Each structure stands twice: as C-alpha cells, then as structure tokens.
Amino acid sequence: MSVRIYNTLTQKKEPLNPLEPGHVKLYVCGITSYDYCHIGHARSSLVFDMIVKYLRYCGYKVTFVRNFTDIDDKIINRANEQGTPPSQLAARFIDEFYRDMDYLGLQRPDIEPKATEHIDDMIGLIETLIAKDQAYAVDGDVYFAVEHFPAYGKLSRRRLEDMQAGARITINEKKRHPMDFALWKHSKAGEPAWDSPWGPGRPGWHIECSAMSKKYLGDTFDIHGGGKDLIFPHHENEIAQSEAANDKPFVNMWVHHGFVTVRNEATAENEKMSKSLGNFLTIRELSEKYHPEILKLFIFSTQYRNPLEYSEQAMLDAETGLTRLYESIAGIDAIKRKPADIAGTVITDKEADKIDSLEERFRQAMDNDFNTAQAIGQLFDAAKTVNKILRKLPEEQAPADLARLDQAREAIIRQGRVIGILNEPAQVFLERRKRETIRDAVIDPAAIETLIARRNEARKNKDWKLSDAIRDELLAKSVELKDGPDGTTWSVKRD
RNA sequence: GGCGGCGUAGCCAAGUGGCCAAGGCAGUGGUCUGCAAAACCAUUAUUCAGCGGUUCAAAUCCGCUCGCCGCCUCCA
C-alpha cells in the first residue's frame, strides 16, 4: 500500500516514489505579498500542510519549501497607491500572512525563500538560458523563447497555435513570439532595481521559482504544488525555464488544488473567489468568527481538487460536526471509571472492529489522493461507535472495554490531527465554545444558574408548569437545558 | 474557439467495474425523559443529469446530448 497522488502532468493517480527513497521534496508557490490573504489562500496553505503532515505520519522525511514573491508589478503598483516603498509593503504583508498562518495553527515550511534574496541565482539561470539560445535580451528586458522549447505546453496541454487564437495577448514589439515571457524586466525610474548584465531591472514572475527550487531541492524534485490557476502560465513557464536550463526533468508530480467559490447573489451562481472580482473573504475576517478547526473541517470536507463553495451554513455545519467529534472524546474522558473484575465485555465484535480498523480505513482514504472527505467520514463513523458503546457502558466496567475506548480516543485524535483538528483537550474546546456562544446570549451565566436552581426546586415539587416555563424562558434566550443524572447542564443554541 | 473539470438523496459529500451506493447537516418514527434536550436505534437515492454502447457485471469504461465551472490576463 502506498500513497497515490493525482499528477496534473499525466492526468493520472500515481504512486508516490520519491527520488531519494523515504525523502519527499516538495515545493509550493506561496503568496505575492501585497494584500491580506483570503480563504482561497487558506485552502492552499491547509492542503499542503495536510499533505506534509500525512506524508510525515506515513514515515516520510519531507523537505517543504514555500516561497514569498516579494517583488512584482502588483506590489509596486500597490505601494505607489499607498505611498510606501515596495519593500516595506511586501514585508508588512508577509507579517500579516504569518498572523493568518498562526491563526490556522500551521507549521512553517522548512524553507521559506524570498525572491528578493535570490536575485543572483535568477540572474545566473537567465544567463544559462541565454547561452543556450533559449532566451534573448532586448533593450534591458530578457525573454524566454517558447519556440525553442519543444515541450512547451505539456503541463497545461495546449499548443502555441491554439493559444494565440483566442488569447488576449498584449502586443509587444520586443518579443519574437507573442507567447514569449519575461525573465527580466528593465526598471523605469523610481522602481526597485537590481544590477544585472542587462542593466538595472527586476526578475519576471516565473524565474524565481525555477531558481529557488533548484537551489533548495535540486534540478529534479518530487512534488510541485499550487492552485489550479497556476497551471498556466506560471507552472508551464517554470517547466520551460528549468528544463531548458538544466536538461533534466523538473518535477515528477504536479499537485493542484481547486478553488474556493462563493455565491454571487446577483447571478445566483457560484464563481471563483478572486481579487479581480472583489468577492473575496479574508482569513482575518474568518478568524474573528470561527475557531480555526471549524475552517479546517469545512475545507477538508471536500477533496482538495474539487471546487468548494463557501457559505455561512457550511461553516455552521462544520462547527456542529467538530463539536460532535469533541463531545465523543469528552464522553470517554468523563467515564466514571470503576473497573470491575470481570472478563466480559459490552463491546460487540463489530464495534471492536470499527475501532481497531479506524487507522487502516483512514489511511486508505488518505492514500487515495489525500481524500480527506472520506477520511473524515471514518472519524465520524468511529465517533458514532464510541457513542454507542458509552451509552451501554455499565457502572462497573470491564477493563477490556475501558482499554478499547481509550484506544478509540487515541486513534480518533491521532487521525484527526493529520488534518489539523482535535488539537485541543475536548473539555477545553467545549468549554470555550460555550463561553464564546455565551457572548451571543442575552443573559449572563449567573442568572442562568439561578433560574436552573429555581427550576430544579420546582421539579422536585413536581411543579412541571413552572419548570417548563423556566425552560422555555431560557430557550427563548437560546439557552438549552439538559437534565442528566448528575444535574442540569446548559448550552447556548446557535441558529 | 482551444484545453481541463464537474453533474450522486432536501443540502454538503465519498465512491480505485462485482457484498445492502460511505459520512456529515437537515427531516421523520422510536428508546430514554415528568415533558424536553443530548445520545442511541430505525428510517430517508430499486438509483447515480439524459440517451446509447462495451461487459457475465458500470455511478464507475467509451460515445453523444443537455447543464454548470475553471484556465487561455494578475490570481490559491
């Protein structure tokens, strides 16, 4: 059994076979730092974090590189609008990015190279391409000659002729072929500039990834990832640059995740969330409303390659589901343990098997191109089994049953953490959730406790009318009561 | 126009040719409860957009039709 991953290059699921056995080298295109990150960036970060976590869980050593594009036309334009130096703007949004990543609870990649710190590497690569007649300099610019690279289009499956037909290509007299793309751009007065053999300028967008991946991962590495929108032109161009320069295959597997879409109220249709459409929701906004694990459960409830529609309702569903998992764990934590000296068991073979096979079923789902949706289904299935057992657990329990429940608890948490959830003690999560929901309640906890006491007094006197009146009163304020064997507990109902 | 993808229950979403088509949310009936809530049990797609084809066998493979989305311009 092995991890199978969908490779955009071959359009097939393929077994992962690292060039260096047991060591996966992964490069992911990171952000261009000129604005706050949106939920689409969150999906990207979460998906690759999950992939890294899962591969490590499987025993692989993973070297994970993710870059920052900190010099680019968009950065320059935005900096000019705001009257700040581009370098300052870029640095600021890298900080903001880290704040978002911390909210999501993500580990840092092993290496996070910045474009501006690798200008020399890029210049070296461009010189190699010019020497090989794969690139040419014109008036301080350098362009890649796509016609000199026969494999151009192999990732995005398009031919040069087809692209020209419908493309919106800006006419550029300097280019020999309309699809040639810039490796180096000469700088106008006042723009950031680095010295180069072609005069002062800055790198084109694509060359940084070719240069930095080569530096940190070598000429050929295992996996290169990014959003589907990067397939063309960004990744296509990276392949062209790297393979033309190195004369070696660039990347073995290309992994691309799908978009987050959002409903357009005007057209009632889903559309990609993007800056140009102005319909994006920032991670910062989400962080004010939702626990990060809710966002993760929402994002991983769909396989990473499929589109994902964001909605408040979907987030509320995810919250309900996450709470369900935590409550199941809390149920095990709350067992009043009185091990009895009995060999018997209340756990059926089928239930025992559900628990014993959880890890295996989880791995099967994840091995199949990181099918988190299916994997999560296995977690819920296990939680259901746990609940079933808890319900029939006697006051004095068989040690074997307690051991099995502890095993279940451990297994659910361990698998959950691969997708970034169940990181907190269940009680902490549930208590905090309760506190957070209290904020929305129109009544304070002390008053609730007073009412509960009055109601329990009424119940003792079998004054059901008063008892129900108090319960209804609290329910009207979204406070839900639960009468259990150990007294009455309450929670805030969300609607 | 070129290329890629999607269409599975009220909603979300798995399904790598062959036991009863996972799982979640919502719903319904029941157990429990003074009544509730939670939990549990049962139930909710004789069917996988439609039509053909391949096969002993297809949601899964092939073709066509319809609908939707994305890329081809910056984009996760």
Question: How would you portray this structure in words?
Answer:
The chain is an alpha/beta fold and 495 residues long. It folds into three domains: 4-262, Rossmann fold (3-Layer(aba) Sandwich), CATH 3.40.50; 312-428, Anticodon-binding domain of a subclass of class I aminoacyl-tRNA synthetases (Four Helix Bundle (Hemerythrin (Met), subunit A)), CATH 1.20.120.640; 441-492, no CATH class. 48% of the residues lie in helices and 15% in strands. The protein contains 17 helices and 15 strands. The strands form five sheets. The chain has a four-stranded parallel sheet with strand order 4-3-9-10, with helices on both faces. A four-stranded antiparallel sheet has the order 5-6-7-8, covered by helices on one side. The chain has a three-stranded mixed sheet with strand order 12-11-13. The protein is elongated. The two termini are 44 Å apart. The mean pLDDT is 92. It binds one RNA strand of 76 nucleotides through helix 1, helix 5, helix 7, strand 12 and helix 10.
Give a nutshell description of this structure.
It holds the Pfam family CysS_C. With 495 residues, the protein is of the alpha/beta class. The protein contains 17 helices and 15 strands.
Alpha-beta classification: alpha/beta
Mean pLDDT: 92
Work out the count of structural domains: 3
CATH structural class of the largest domain: Alpha Beta
Number of beta-strand segments: 15
Radius of gyration: 28 Å
Question: What summary fits the major beta sheet?
Answer: 4 strands, parallel
By oligomeric state, this entry counts as single chain
Bulk shape: elongated
- Report how far the terminal alpha carbons are from each other: 44 Å
Approximate strand percentage: 15-25%
Helix content: 40-55%
Strand order of the largest sheet: 4-3-9-10
The number of helical elements comes to: 17
CATH topology of the largest domain: Rossmann fold
Q: What is the correct CATH architecture of the largest domain?
A: 3-Layer(aba) Sandwich
Low-confidence spans: pLDDT under 50, at least 5 residues?
none
**At the fourth CATH level, what is the homologous superfamily of the largest domain?**
HUPs
Cofactor: Zn(2+)
Catalytic activity: tRNA(Cys) + L-cysteine + ATP = L-cysteinyl-tRNA(Cys) + AMP + diphosphate
InterPro entries: Cys-tRNA-ligase, Cys-tRNA-synt_Ia_DALR, Cys-tRNA/MSH_ligase, CysS_C, Rossmann-like_a/b/a_fold, tRNA-synt_1_cat_dom, tRNAsynth_Ia_anticodon-bd
GO molecular function: ATP binding; cysteine-tRNA ligase activity; zinc ion binding
